[in-house]
Design a protein that fits this description.
This protein has 4 helices and 37 strands. The protein has 556 residues and is mainly β. The longest helix has 12 residues. 29% of the residues are buried.
Length: 556
């Protein structure tokens, strides 16, 4: 035994406690002051001190390694050998990992580009299964590790620009979906949807197509046939309605009378009728037998029979029912088919003797048509046709006409009036109203016209008087009756009577009665209430701007 420090020698010579084992003895032998324990469990023989760890004898546990620092050696987090990385978990669904401890870090050397296959083996490209790979061109790792391009169905496949691409298809096949993963998936020799090339669909008109190195027609839809032998036409013929291929290709239908050939449901029948004809009985033997433009039983269309109009026979003209011949003494004046020949020209006052020859409206009477001539047929109650002239109708009002009182030519005596058809002593009619200077009369005019309307009968005298001459001037006899009748009818009359000239006539807007002058401003006897201005007349004074006074006219 070498020489030991006294303390050590004394301790070595002494009996050691039972708790010290050989490791402690070894630490003492290296010159450490005593047994090394946490946090410095390792004895450094060079320094004779207890330290956390030594690189030559790494006492750091799994997941740690001895690292030199400014304060000496210490345990740091990280691996120190490959076995410490073996238990790392594999991601769900992931490929098995080959782990190694590189620079105190657990690394999957199957995929790490800086440690590809082993620690320190760096790749400039991708690391796939521990080997450096160019994924832009490697068919087994195209675009990414493990993404292989496959064998290529009916094709030659390569990787270019990180994508699997088909170099060439086997003869008769084509890559229609542009997906290299399933290769050239379409057999263009027999695929109707890609016949001889992608997207070339065999779809014949009105039929079902097939492909055999080119499109062909497998079958036609019901009612159609392929008659042209041109596959591009498809099933072009409707054999249910084609008159030259009726039911089958090549069966030609014959044309019926007045019609073209037709085909319906694959059976020959009547086709379109010639212009002006129609098939109304549906009999193909006689074709289009009807003429709707002139046939009164099928006028305008089949089955439209012209009804028998009143007093006439029907005809069909240009496809419309119209009236043919009228019965004797009847005419179609309103041109309406429904009422036929509606006018009886022997008795119709609106069409007497011919259309539009209306009988006149006779005054106070009714017209009639007798054997095509207009006659005055009747008089209204109280009126008579005494002059037998239809033009003025029933011109006499027998209840009031003094010349025909109660009957034609039954005249009343002078001084009598006709009332209710009987002659009576005429009681006379008087007009007497007050007038105001420089005021246009209104009520006075209305009363004047009422007075004139009451002058019915024969009169023996007429007098003009007023507040300026209460007696006034008078005219008697036949001349008086003439003047009163002229006032009633508004007829212009000028007649001498009792040494003066009496005048009835128009002045302004009404009828006037005056002496000596007519419609002037002279001083005289003038009554003109309806002149329409303040110059309404006067008695023994100027008729213009006369002072206020009463004017009176009396027929008796």
């Amino acid at each position: 035994m070498p020489d030991l420090p006294p303390s050590v020698g004394d301790l070595a010579a002494a009996d050691l406690p039972a708790a010290l084992d050989l490791a402690v003895a070894a630490d003492l032998a290296k010159g450490c002051p005593g047994p090394c324990a946490d946090p410095t469990p390792t004895c450094d023989p060079e320094s004779g001190a207890c330290v956390p760890c030594l690189p030559a004898k790494d006492t750091c546990g799994d997941g740690g390694y001895c690292e030199a620092g400014d304060g000496g050696f210490a345990c740091a987090t990280g691996c120190k050998k490959d076995s410490e990385c073996a238990g790392m978990a594999v991601p769900d669904g992931g490929a098995p990992m080959k782990m190694a401890c590189c620079n105190h870090t657990c690394v999957n050397v199957q995929s790490a580009p800086d440690h590809c296959g082993k620690c320190g083996a760096a790749c400039a490209q991708s690391c796939c299964s521990g080997a450096c790979v160019d994924t832009a061109a490697d068919a087994k790792h195209c675009g990414a590790c493990g993404k292989g391009c496959g064998a290529g169905f009916n094709s030659q496949v390569a990787c270019a620009q990180s994508k699997c691409q088909i170099l060439a298809c086997t003869a008769g096949f084509s890559d229609c979906n542009l997906d290299a993963s399933d290769g050239c998936e379409i057999n263009i020799k027999n695929d109707p949807a890609n016949c001889t090339g992608c997207g070339k669909f065999c779809n014949p008109k009105n039929g079902v197509g097939g492909c055999a190195n080119g499109c062909f027609i497998m079958s036609c839809y019901q009612g159609f046939a392929h008659c042209s032998n041109d596959v591009n036409d498809g099933c072009e013929t409707s054999i249910t309605k084609d008159p030259i291929n009726c039911g089958v290709c090549g069966k030609v239908c014959a044309a019926p009378p007045n019609a073209t050939a037709g085909c319906m449901g694959g059976v020959c029948n009547v086709g379109p009728c010639l212009n002006g004809f129609a098939d109304c009985d549906n009999n193909p033997q006689n074709g289009c037998e009807a003429t709707p433009l002139t046939d009164s039983k099928n006028c305008g269309k089949c089955g439209n029979a012209c009804a028998l109009p009143p007093n006439a026979l029907p005809v069909c003209t240009a496809g419309s029912c119209s009236i043919g011949a009228c019965d004797p003494n009847y005419l179609d004046c309103n041109k309406l088919y429904a009422d036929g020949c509606e006018a009886n020209v022997n008795g119709d006052i609106k069409n007497c003797g011919g259309c539009g020859k209306a009988c006149p409206a006779y005054p106070n009477g009714g017209a009639a048509c007798l054997k095509g001539a207009c006659v005055l047929f009747s008089c209204n109650p109280g009126f008579l046709d005494c002059n037998q002239m239809p033009g003025d109708g029933c011109e006499i009002a027998a209840a009031t006409d003094a010349k025909n009182c109660g009957g034609c030519n039954k005249a009343c005596d002078l001084g009598e009036a006709c009332k209710a058809g009987s002659c009576i002593i005429n009681p006379g009619v008087q007009y007497s109203l007050a007038f105001v200077v420089n005021v246009t009369p209104v009520a006075q005019c209305t009363a004047w016209n009422t007075f004139r309307g009451l002058l019915i009968g024969n009169y023996t005298s007429v007098t003009i008087s007023g507040s300026n001459d209460l007696t006034g001037v008078s005219c008697a006899g036949v001349e008086a009756n003439k003047l009163c009748q002229a006032l009633r009818t508004g007829t212009a009359v000028s007649t001498p009577c009792d040494g003066r000239i009496w005048t009835v006539g128009s002045c302004g807007s009404g009828i006037s009665l005056s002496l000596d002058t007519m419609c002037s401003c002279n001083t005289t006897y003038t009554v003109r209430p309806c002149i329409g201005n303040p110059n309404w007349g006067g008695v023994k004074i100027s008729a213009c701007s006369a002072p206020s006074q009463t004017l009176t006219v009396n027929c008796q």
